[in-house]
TrEMBL record:
Gene3D superfamilies: DD-peptidase/beta-lactamase superfamily. It comes from the Bacteria. One of its GO terms (molecular function) is hydrolase activity. Keywords: Hydrolase. The keyword Hydrolase applies. It comes from Candidatus Gallilactobacillus intestinavium. This is Serine hydrolase.
Amino acid sequence: MYYLKEVTNQSYQDYITNTFLKPNGLNEVKFASQVDSGKMAAPYNNGQSVSNATVTKAMNSQMGQNQLVITPEAMLKLTQLLIKDYGNNPNFISSQPTGRLIKSGDMYYVSGGIVGYRTSIAISQDGKKGIVLISNDSNGKDNLTPLVKNLYSNSK
């Protein structure tokens, strides 16, 4: 097993920024640990307000600090780039470098998030058709995947 830092001499965040974000004009995309949570949409969990301290803790946890704070447009563009460059590689899905990206029929889809926030994506295998949903109300359940898959299936 190789570690990204040993192979590239860069942190995970720097590698993602220098390899994917900056070269593709995604300069507004930040890692959660780099963003003032007070400037984000107020988070909710099951309709209940999530405290700023809870969000800050989640954003700076080991998993949270590697999450991206991103607009739906930028998320679609980043996903299109990844699909275009890596989507046909069998290891892209089997090794799951993307977390839980799932291939189904003519699309890939995935959902994820941190406390108070949730994102779900469905995108065609060629990257030309896609839907991104971002919510500031999480409920500990994956409630966006069925919706994004339905919207994708019904879009032209």
